[in-house]
Design goal:
Strand content of chain A: under 5%
Strand order of the largest sheet of chain A: 1-2
Radius of gyration of chain A: 22 Å
Helix content of chain A: 55-70%
Oligomer: homodimer
Distance between the termini of chain A: 73 Å
Number of helices of chain A: 9
Chain lengths: 212, 212
């Protein structure tokens, strides 16, 4: 298809597609003539991935480039590819050096180990968890997170993994991981707030007395 | 205590405390002389709340003022007070008017009703959930969130509610709701990422064959 059809089909504006081509986010079409190139389903799929990373994952263009590079590098394993995308999605964590930070990080690592999870030592979510534990300790909140870990594992293994096409094209798998991570995360967050309102409300409303 | 002691005790810098006083976030101390005022435990508690809203909740000062105003308004019920704080914590939601948005919002409302949760119609988390469902539909992701709702309810009712002192001072209850909402949310998010990495890794690593 021509670039104008690619734009119509994908819903991405023509200047935006040209920008992605210039930035190397989108691979060039097959050159048919000096001013005409042919685009196919791989371009549509790639545009979907870029939009997912940009709009749903809210990643900066520099991070999207890193993800695209590893998707295109077929010498990288699916594992490495998904790891790169996944690690780019997490919030930046500021470590606060000192013995309390070290203790929080150890607590996070111990939890992951006790759960028997296969997680690389450099996974940024370890620091994310450490930072949260650090803060909870400072504020005197209970830090037993086993119920949270159990719930997270159940949702990921029973629902989210089912949406990832591990055997399909590489960008489809990355897209599914990004969308699943972000969207199920937001859904859970909204549901948690709703449950909080409901439970707060229930605890603050006196139970109706019989006969009144 | 004097303002310098309040600063030392709370860890909040003197100019910052003066700024909070000017902005009306912190109530004035008891005026002992033209240049000397006396501060007490209520000021320490208020500073803790402000820091929690600012640093953990990442609320803008304008939202913090709204929360503080309702904490100080003893004619507002605990319920209203917690609602104001809670509603200020959610991310802003951009509605996308049209029949698809309406359908997503109805789906969110139906879910809340089916769960039997006590949630006001104007709760922003309803729109948050609607927006997520809207996006999931657009992208062809499964929208059955009952497992997420069940997990959220369990964590909120069995763990988080236990951290809120419903019978204590008003600002302590607000502080607990803010800290609980934000910090347990972050902990869950980090754990979910760790579970995702572990499950992806497990599914991509061939099982060891016996004798090899």
């Amino acid at each position: 298809m021509r670039i104008s059809e690619l734009s119509a089909e994908s819903g991405v504006a023509l200047p935006t597609i040209k920008y992605y081509l210039r930035e190397g986010l989108l691979h060039p079409g097959e050159q048919l003539a000096a001013t005409r190139a042919d685009y196919d389903a791989s371009h549509l799929r790639r545009l979907r991935l870029i939009r997912a990373l940009l709009e749903v994952g809210r990643l900066p263009v520099a991070s999207i480039k890193k993800v695209i590079r590893v998707v295109d590098d077929t010498s990288a394993s699916v594992h490495e590819m998904l790891g790169t995308a996944h690690y780019a999605l997490g919030p930046p964590v500021e470590r606060e050096p000192g013995p309390e930070w070290e203790a929080a990080r150890r607590e996070a690592d111990d939890l992951v180990e006790a759960l028997g999870w296969q997680v690389l030592p450099q996974a940024p979510a370890r620091d994310e968890l450490a930072q949260t534990l650090f803060r909870m300790r400072q504020l005197g909140l209970p830090t037993d997170l086993s119920a949270y870990a159990e719930a997270a594992f159940k949702l990921v293994s029973e629902t989210e993994m089912g949406t990832v096409p591990f055997d399909g094209p590489r960008d489809a798998a990355v897209e599914a991981v990004v969308l699943g991570t972000v969207l199920y995360g937001r859904a859970f967050d909204a549901l948690r707030r709703l449950a909080q309102e409901s439970e707060t409300s229930r605890r603050l409303t006196p139970a109706p007395r019989p006969g009144v």
